[in-house]
Amino acid sequence: METRKEFLEAVMKMANLRDLKQADATARAVISLTKAIIGEELSQKIAELSPPDLREGWESIRPAYLFDDYERDELLFETGEVSEG
């Protein structure tokens, strides 16, 4: 798997999602939580070992703990979703 599109297609199939937009939202949520759990050092190592397109996607997602409750609630109220990056 070399590209974000291939990754999202795999997520979509594995999670029985209807489209790439849902797959992207799902992947971002899981990656955000994963980054919060594994920490910055391991996250950076994963980025370094990833193909360029996957690395770019990985690095664009902030760890979940960087959202404070107010910021998350405001994003949910305004957009209906929490965006990353």
Structure explained in plain terms:
The protein has 85 residues and is mainly alpha-helical. The chain has one domain. It contains four helices and no strands. The radius of gyration is 13 Å and the shape is flat. The mean pLDDT is 86.
N- to C-terminal distance:
23 Å
User: What overall form do the CA principal axes indicate?
Assistant: flat
Would you list the SSEs in sequence order as H and E?
HHHH
Average pLDDT metric: 86
The radius of gyration is: 13 Å
Q: Given the structure, what is the number of helices?
A: 4
Write the topology of this structure.
Layout: H1 4-14, H2 20-49, H3 52-59, H4 69-79
Helix pairs in contact: 1-2, 2-3
Short summary:
With 85 residues, the chain is mostly helical. It has four helices and no strands.
Output the keywords:
4 helices; 85 residues; mainly alpha
